[in-house]
């Protein structure tokens, strides 16, 4: 019985994790605006902006939403993310996470 319960919990956790995964191709299409500061392949051309390539997907989702919702403030990021939907954010995060660390 214990192994069945553990299997059920693992299955629910797996579904919950993959249910939030974004569309990599849609994220790449949406990333054109991001490329000015974060680079076309997620590697920033300047030291002031962070690299996004290879960042953890859920971390990116949380940070972009925080910028959008105003809980994390940055004068440059606020207008860039103001009109992003949750789906846009998930897609961008999936794209940058898919690039791997460079």
Q: Assign the CATH superfamily.
A: Cytochrome c-like domain
CATH architecture heading = Orthogonal Bundle
Which shape, going by the Cα principal axes? globular
Helix content: 55-70%
Mean pLDDT metric:
87
Total domains: 1
Order of helices and strands: HHHHHH
Look at the helices and sheets and give the structural class.
mainly alpha
Strand-residue proportion: under 5%
Number of helices: 6
How many β-strands, per DSSP? 0
Largest sheet: none
Q: Class in CATH?
A: Mainly Alpha
CATH topology: Cytochrome Bc1 Complex, Chain D, domain 2
Low-confidence spans: none
**In whole angstroms, how far apart are the ends?**
45 Å
Gyration radius over CA: 16 Å
């Amino acid at each position: 019985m214990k192994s069945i319960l553990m299997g059920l919990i693992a299955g629910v956790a797996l579904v919950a994790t993959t249910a939030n995964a974004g569309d990599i191709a849609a994220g790449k299409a949406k990333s054109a605006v991001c490329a000015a500061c974060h680079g076309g392949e997620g590697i920033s051309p300047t030291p002031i902006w962070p690299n996004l390539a290879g960042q953890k997907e859920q971390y990116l989702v949380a940070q972009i939403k925080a910028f959008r919702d105003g809980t994390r403030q940055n004068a440059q990021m606020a207008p860039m993310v103001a009109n992003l939907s949750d789906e846009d954010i998930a897609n961008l995060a999936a794209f940058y996470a898919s690039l791997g660390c460079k």
